[in-house]
Every structure is written in structure tokens, then in C-alpha cells.
Give the backbone structure.
Amino acid sequence: MAKTSDAIKIIDNKTSTDPEMEAMIAEASINAEVAQLIYEARTKAGLTQKQLAELVGTKQPVIARLEDADFDILPPLNQRL
């Protein structure tokens, strides 16, 4: 195989043979998309993180973690948003 300096190709070559790694990468990608959607919806509505938190019955740090794609917290909260 020819050498490449393309980081995406290198990562793909290293992970494409590991189904578990592929699944982790896919999940992280989805989490990042959801985090971006939450951020965009909140800012479009003109809400602060604190205001959104109050609307969905949680605290501001939880919203911050969601917007950082930290979805290891209360999975049902994503559904409320």
C-alpha cells in the first residue's frame, strides 16, 4: 500500500478493520451532530443555557455538557430537548 499523509485516510485505514472502533466513531459523529443541533436551536430561540435548562427541567451544566456532545448523561434528556 502506498504511503499517504492524509490524516483522514490514515485513520480510516487504522479503524476500518475494527468494527467496534467503527461503531464508536459513528456514535461520536452522531453525538457531535446532535450537540450542534441543540446549540443551534437554543441560540436561534434566543435562549441561554440556563433558560433552556429551566424549560426542560434540568440544570445549566447539563445543557453545557450536551452541547459539548457529552451524552453519557441522562439519555432521556436528549429526548426532552
